[in-house]
Give the backbone structure.
Amino acid sequence: MSYDQQSPHEPEPPTATVQLNHTAVYAGDRQLSAEFIAAILGLKVGAPFGPFLPVDLGNGVTLDYYEKRDESIQPQHYAFLVPDAQFDAMIARLEAVGVTYYADPSHTEPGQINRLFGGRGAYFDDPDGHNMEIMTRPYARP
């Protein structure tokens, strides 16, 4: 059977739109990095799945941490839309572990948050240098 054909016994796909299901996040130490982001966001690290260590974001998407110890990690940007009621707790957790947060993606405004699009946001680095962002309102797009 080709990929564009369904068996008569297979159910229809669960959604009619394209959705992100998971993405691999490269890490020097998958356990450390997965536990870090889970702790900051107030989430849990899942059970290993092959070479991946997942963090379930609660909206059907997982960050699947994949360890690359012998190669340099190319930093990426990951943005998380978070509930406004949990934003202050996330900032407090960053402060508690000594991680500096910034109002801007270039990290020139330390210890400050932004108020873009009527919400609040901040940027911070994870243990591998990925530029993480938490925001309470999505960006207004033209």
The first strand starts at residue 22 and ends at 27. The helical segments are 30-41, 84-96. DSSP finds two helices and seven strands in the chain. Confidence is low (pLDDT under 50) at residues 1-6.
